[in-house]
């Protein structure tokens, strides 16, 4: 071989086409590497986005559950106010006379006798003021239970505070009864109804049937 004649390998290395192939191969490798890196980054980003989206969905659901009781709150408040107003109008006595009249009606219907009736007014409240009735009640046991049940079931709002046995004679039972109702502060008078003085009336047996607080006209003899 002539030393002046270049070898085929040298010719190939110095050929522009060879360098083009080499550059193309390098670019291809770089492109594949960038593509793989991009794919890995995209998968990682997609996973993080999915997790973030799931987290946001959980937060949204939690907020939805937390705010659920507040939905329609204004309508419920308005409905509650109407119910309270209806309760006041139907079950809260507007004055002492209606309270005493209702107790007198229940006394006549049940056949019991009330005596030594006393009223006590509690401290004024913002919405309602408690009014208590303390009286002696006498009669047959079924009649007394009929009177008590009538108070508890009456449309006017009564609460039985206590009953105490004070005596029993000839089939008649004598009890001390304490009952509470409530009135709106504007309806409460400055002075309570007259309370009977302690004297001959209190010294008489409770089953005499003489009430110490006047029963509405026409009710006692029915």
Task: Characterise this structure.
The protein has 222 residues and is α+β, with helices and mostly antiparallel strands. The chain has two domains: 8-65; 92-208, 2-Layer Sandwich (Alpha-Beta Plaits). Helix content is 50%, strand content 19%. The chain has helices at 8-14, 16-67, 73-91, 96-110, 141-153, 200-203, and strands at 113-121, 129-139, 159-169, 172-183. Strands 1-2-4-3 form a four-stranded antiparallel β-sheet.
Quick tags:
single chain, 222 residues, alpha+beta, Alpha-Beta Plaits, four-stranded antiparallel sheet, 19% strand, rod-shaped
CATH architecture of the largest domain: 2-Layer Sandwich
Strand order of the largest sheet: 1-2-4-3
The strand count comes to 4
The end-to-end distance, rounded to whole angstroms, is 153 Å
Radius of gyration: 47 Å
The top-level CATH class of the largest domain is: Alpha Beta
Helix fraction by DSSP (H/I, runs of at least 4): 40-55%
CATH fold field value of the largest domain: Alpha-Beta Plaits
Q: Tell me, what's the shape?
A: rod-shaped
Q: Total number of helical segments?
A: 6
CATH superfamily of the largest domain: Ribosomal protein S6/Translation elongation factor EF1B
Q: Structural class of the helices, strands and pairings?
A: alpha+beta
Give the overall pLDDT as a whole number: 75
Main beta-sheet annotation: 4 strands, antiparallel
Compute the number of structural domains: 2
Order of helices and strands: HHHHEEHEEH
What is the beta-strand fraction?
A: 15-25%
Low-confidence stretches: 196-222
């Amino acid at each position: 071989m002539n030393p002046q004649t270049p070898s085929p390998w040298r010719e190939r290395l110095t050929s522009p086409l060879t360098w083009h192939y080499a550059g193309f191969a390098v670019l291809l490798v770089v492109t594949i590497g960038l593509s793989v890196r991009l794919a890995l980054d995209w998968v990682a980003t997609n996973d993080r986005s999915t997790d973030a989206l799931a987290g946001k969905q959980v937060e949204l659901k939690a907020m939805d559950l937390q705010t659920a009781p507040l939905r329609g709150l204004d309508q419920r408040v308005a409905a509650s106010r109407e119910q309270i107003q209806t309760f006041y109008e139907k079950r809260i006595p507007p004055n002492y006379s209606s309270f005493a009249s209702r107790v007198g009606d229940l006394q006549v219907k049940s056949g019991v006798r009330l005596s030594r009736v006393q009223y006590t007014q509690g401290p004024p409240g913002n919405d309602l003021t408690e009014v208590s009735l303390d009286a002696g009640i006498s009669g047959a046991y079924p009649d007394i239970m009929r009177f008590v049940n009538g108070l508890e079931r009456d449309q006017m709002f009564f609460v039985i505070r206590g009953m105490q046995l004070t005596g029993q004679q000839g089939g008649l039972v004598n009890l001390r009864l304490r009952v509470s109702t409530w009135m709106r502060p504007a309806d409460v008078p400055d002075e309570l109804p007259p309370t009977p003085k302690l004297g001959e009336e209190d010294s008489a047996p409770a089953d005499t049937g003489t009430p110490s607080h006047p029963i509405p006209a026409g009710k006692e003899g029915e």
